Amino acid sequence: MSPDSAPAPAPAPAYVIDPTGGCPHALNARLRARGAVADVVLPGGVPAAVVLGHEALKEFLGHPDAAKDARHFSALHDGTIAPDWPLRVFANAQGMHTADGADHRRLRALVGNAFTARQVERLRPRVEELTAELLDDLARAAAEAPDGVVDLRSRFALPLPMGVICELLGVDPEHRGRLHHLSHTVIIATDTTPAEVVAAVRELVELMGTIAAARRASPGEDLTSALIAAREGDGDRLSEAELIGTMRLMLVAGHETTLNLIGNAVRALCAHRDQLALVQEGKAGWSDVVDETLRWDAPVSWFPFRYAARDLTVDGSVIPRGTPVLAAYSSAGRDEAFHGPDADRFDVTRPAASRHLSFGHGAHYCVGAPLARLEATIALERLFTRFPDLDLAVPEPELPYLHSFIGNGVESLPVRLG
């Protein structure tokens, strides 16, 4: 047989996604070695695709036929997928994150003004105040702990962004703990049962309704009150489902991702003391730490969903019409083809540190990116200024990863303040 007539190699089998998650980087590297796009099987046996390479993901995120509206998700509507499929929550939600075109622009405009660089900068004093309060609490907890160990995730990385977004939304403090638990169950944890997800979605929607009712009864200068005014006013109105969906999006995106960003940055700096020294010596900035963390250890791993509105060819791979597609932000950040042969090295002086895709690309670029940057930069600067010798209390490999293929972070972050 001549070389020209040799049979084409068999396509690689689809990767069956592990719902228990874990550190994504070794898996990403193996799949990227096959190509920038891979076939995968979602929990529940649902065929899908994941885009892994930086340039391929950038192309896909900006493609006009990579839709967010789940009407393009064929299997969702033809009876193939069970009604209680846990990932259905990503398709069924209503808001700017599941809208295209004019609908997306309408919904984004209603919240966009709250997240402009100027508006976010006005939040700086409150973020600094909350950070100082949490650092005081952290120091007290460490002093009271017999071994001096405190969980930085639950005592600092979580309550800071959660407090900021809840104040922005006008959420009373009494609801915050439950909101985090429910949003984590619905959006982040991917090893949950269908019954657990259904129950959490129901309770989360009810709780959002309770919060909206409180703001209707007593409007304030918060984002929920502004959304309700749009819901009940003239012009670009929100439906009730869009109101609840937008509130849920703001809540989840406003704290889960920043929580992971802060935690991942702390882990990276503790594991790379030379890089921490560069920042402490003024040879790099805290914003460089934030950007390099977003590239090197993105807070979101594989995010659902966009849908191929027609057969799409991305980096030579055909994604059939109707396919749900995951955006592998954690993979694109370490793509050697774009970031170079040292892509897996944490380097705060990297000149291309800002050229990551962790906030997305195109029309759906993260509206809350300025707030996340502000919170993470202040949090890290104040944390390591007050506790310059802070270090992990357990070896990095022993940290428990989130049970998620969506969120990329750890469930706890025990540290000694030094």
TrEMBL record:
Alphabetized InterPro entries for the sequence: Cyt_P450, Cyt_P450_B, Cyt_P450_CS, Cyt_P450_sf
Keywords of the record: Heme, Iron, Metal-binding, Monooxygenase, Oxidoreductase
Keyword match Metal-binding: yes
Protein name: Cytochrome P450
Family designation: Belongs to the cytochrome P450 family.
Single GO molecular function: heme binding
